[in-house]
Design brief:
Blueprint (H helix, E strand, L loop, with lengths): L1 H18 L6 H11 L7 E3 L6 E3 L2 H13 L4 H10 L3 E4 L5 E4 L17 H107 L5 H42 L6 H41 L1
Antiparallel strand pairs: 1-2, 2-4, 3-4
């Protein structure tokens, strides 16, 4: 039974070796076959992680396993083969030895093609050196260009920050000037409104006084001249009508001259301000002219009211 089992294992190892012949060295194929044989794990086998194998009994390995798989009992020769393929030797514990390779792993038979002899790896490394040097030079060049771009971005950002600070300062200055000009405009508006209010009050007072004087004059004439004819009354009314508008027109003309002088002074004062304030001053002047027109319209309405009263008085006299 033992002999038949050994024959089956021999045939299995040979078939495995034949499958990978030409791509993987036979030593590695046979070594992997040993690792997959669960009956040998007490002598040699994978560690718990499966990334290395442990030699647990050197004597049995040399006496039973090496002759079967490698046709010799020389354990040092087995070690030299492992070293030739860059297996790293270390201690698994105080007694047993551990061997590992980055491409020699449990269930990783396909990775065996990556394992090469030491001199072959050195030649491959030598072939790769020029390529690595070229890659390093390209990396340095790219790094230098990137550094220059970063410096250019930093300089541009610094300039933008300076420009932003200047704009913020200009905006602050303009805001302060705008507040000052707004306050000046508000004060001027208040003064003009007060001025127009005073003119309106004066005009109203004068019109009322003229009306009172007219009524008093009519009463005095009726008392002093009781026998006056209708034609004479009509002539007197017409004369009063002609005199009163003349007085009112003189007052309105004087008021308009005062307003025109004030508007001229207003323009002279505004011309000393900054150009940014000219548009606002023009609007203020236009507003003032509109107020003047309203003032004149109000005066016209009062004149019309006065005429209506005169007509009423005239009708009473004629009656």
């Amino acid at each position: 039974m033992q002999e038949s089992s050994d024959n089956f294992q021999d045939s299995q190892s040979q078939s495995s070796e034949q499958r990978q012949k030409g791509s993987v060295p036979s030593f590695l194929v046979r070594l992997f076959d040993i690792m997959e044989n669960e009956d040998l794990k007490e002598i040699i086998g994978w560690n718990t992680e499966g990334n290395a194998f442990i030699v647990r009994n050197q004597q049995l390995l040399a006496d039973k396993i090496l002759p079967k798989y490698f046709k010799h009992k020389n354990y040092p020769s087995f070690l030299r083969q492992l070293n030739m393929y860059n297996f790293k030797k270390s201690k698994a514990d105080d007694v047993n030895q551990k061997f590992e390779h980055k491409w020699f792993r449990r269930d990783g038979r396909a990775l065996l093609t990556n394992i090469k002899r030491r001199n072959q790896e050195e030649n491959d490394d030598k072939d790769e050196i020029p390529q690595i040097v070229d890659e390093i030079e390209q990396f340095k060049k790219a790094q230098k260009e990137l550094k220059n771009e970063i410096q250019a971005i930093a300089d541009s950002q610094k300039q933008l920050q300076i420009a932003l600070q200047q704009i913020m300062q200009q905006n602050e200055t303009l805001f302060q000037e705008s507040q000052q000009l707004t306050q000046e405009l508000s004060n001027m508006q208040s003064k003009n409104q007060q001025r127009f209010a005073n003119y309106s009050n004066i005009l109203t007072e004068i019109v009322q006084r003229l009306q009172q004087e007219q009524e008093e004059e009519l009463r005095n004439r009726d008392i002093n001249q009781p026998q006056i004819t209708g034609e004479q009354k009509k002539a007197n009314v017409i004369q009063i009508k002609q005199e009163q508008p003349s007085q009112q027109q003189q007052f309105l003309s004087q008021s308009q001259n005062n307003l025109s002088a004030n508007s001229l002074q207003f323009l002279m004062n505004m011309s000393a301000n900054k150009n940014a304030f000219n548009f606002q001053m023009f609007s203020q002047l236009k507003h003032q002219q509109m107020n003047m027109q309203m003032f004149q319209n109000g005066s016209t309405q009062q004149q019309q009211q006065s005429d209506v009263k005169k007509n009423e008085i005239k009708k009473e006299n004629e009656q």
